[in-house]
Specification:
Pfam families: YmaF
Helix content: under 10%
Strand content: 35-45%
Order of helices and strands: EEEEEEEEEE
Distance between the termini: 21 Å
Number of strands: 10
Shape: elongated
Radius of gyration: 15 Å
Structural class: mainly beta
InterPro entries: YmaF (IPR024307)
Number of helices: 0
Organism: Neobacillus cucumis
Biased composition (Basic and acidic residues): 93-105
Region (Disordered): 93-112
């Protein structure tokens, strides 16, 4: 059986996949942090789709860092047998402020 690679186009659900993302937080207290992320494997949802969980720290900047824990939105097909997920969350409050993070993760194989 052939395995599915990161650039393969697949119809339907691909088990045991995850997503990466590279983004920046919103500006707060005059600075931003880079957010490098890899999600958990898929978590099935009641509608037959899936979401992902993620947690981590934004990159150290301006003398501090922030922690986050979040769930993605459902899979969004983007064509050619690939999908992405939207995310929208706030980091922990550290050094008197938090940051807003939102965007779309990198595509992964599967349409559901």
């Amino acid at each position: 059986m052939r395995s599915t690679g990161k650039d393969d186009f697949v119809q339907g659900f691909v088990p045991h996949h995850n997503h990466g993302s590279v983004d920046y937080t919103g500006v707060s207290s005059g600075h931003v942090h880079q957010c490098l992320d890899v999600t958990s494997p898929p978590i099935p949802s009641q509608d037959g789709g899936h979401i992902h969980y993620t947690e981590g720290y934004v990159v150290f900047e301006n003398g501090h860092t922030h922690h986050y824990r979040a769930y993605s939105g459902p899979a969004i097909p983007v064509g050619n047998g690939m999908h992405v997920h939207y995310y929208d969350f706030h980091t922990s409050e550290d050094n008197g402020h938090s940051h807003h993070v939102r965007g779309v993760d990198h595509p992964a194989p599967g349409t559901k």
